[in-house]
Specification:
With 258 residues, this protein is of the alpha/beta class. The protein folds into two domains: 141 residues, HAD superfamily/HAD-like (Rossmann fold), CATH 3.40.50; 79 residues. The chain starts with 16 loop residues before the first strand and ends in a 20-residue tail after the last helix. 41% of the residues lie in helices and 11% in strands. It is globular and about 55 Å long.
Length: 258
């Protein structure tokens, strides 16, 4: 991809990395996502799900989210999900969602307040910054460029880059390999339980972004290493480097699991 960050593949550096989820962490797209989900379900099924049900799927690939939501319909057992008629319905949902997203993305997506100031400060402290998302490459790049955040990233991993996706750690490992940074020297910042699970499975520390759509009590169930109420608090957490000792950064985070 033109102008894609190249990272530092194959090297082993003494640097530390901060990797970010995209939707709900760097970019406020929750209303857009829910709007597109509702459009797709109303168009294909003349019914929809609750906002909470849609939010619960954030952090996993869109097709997996549709499969999960479809599996929750009355009268549709798990064996029916992979049958040809059902697979066709999933494709219909994906087509309607993507069409709606493409038409409404630029008017509804926006950076979280303060993020444009936080990222250059973190980068000036020597951190390698990157994005690891389950979103498609085209839309993820579009959002980063729209919100003027692309220029701060050294590595970018989207849905197309790996076979397995969050909460599997493969996308995070792929990003760290490109940077040449060990998991023990890296942190994943995300707004969903899938993000926290992926970071922990990758051997990284995790920071839960409480400015996203997932309630604090849900994220606390994953025992993140720190909780950040707003983007500016990331500067407090990372101002002196990420110590080897797990930190609650004054956020009331429960003790992390070993």
């Amino acid at each position: 991809m033109e102008n894609e960050p190249q990272g530092n593949a194959g090297a082993t550096t003494g640097r530390q990395a901060i990797l970010f989820d995209l939707d709900g962490t760097l970019i406020d797209t929750t209303d857009l996502i829910v709007y597109c989900f509702n459009h797709a379900w109303q168009t294909v099924f003349a019914r929809t799900h609750s906002r909470d049900a849609f939010v619960a799927t954030m952090g996993i690939p869109l097709k997996d989210a549709m499969r999960r939501l479809l599996g929750g319909l009355d009268g549709l057992g798990p064996d029916a999900i992979d049958e040809e008629p059902t697979l066709g319905l999933i494709e219909d949902l994906l087509r309607e969602y993507r069409s709606c997203n493409a038409a409404n993305h630029d008017r509804m997506a926006r950076p979280f307040q303060g993020m444009e100031a936080v990222l250059p400060k973190l980068r000036s402290q020597g951190y390698a910054l990157g994005v690891v998302t389950s979103k498609s490459r085209e839309l993820a790049l579009r959002g980063l460029q729209l919100c003027s955040l692309w220029e701060f990233m050294e590595v970018f991993v989207s849905m197309e880059d790996t076979v397995r996706h969050k909460p599997n750690p493969e996308p995070l490992h792929f990003a760290l390999e490109k940077l040449g940074i060990a998991p023990q020297q890296a942190v994943y910042v995300g707004d969903s339980r899938h993000d926290m699970q992926a970071g922990r499975a990758a051997g990284m520390r995790t920071v839960a972004a409480l400015w996203g759509p997932v309630p604090r009590e849900e994220l606390e169930l994953e025992y993140p290493d720190a909780l950040a109420v707003g983007p500016e608090q990331l500067l407090e957490i990372f101002q002196t480097g990420w110590s080897a000792k797990r930190s609650n950064a004054g956020t009331g985070c429960p003790p992390a699991q070993a």
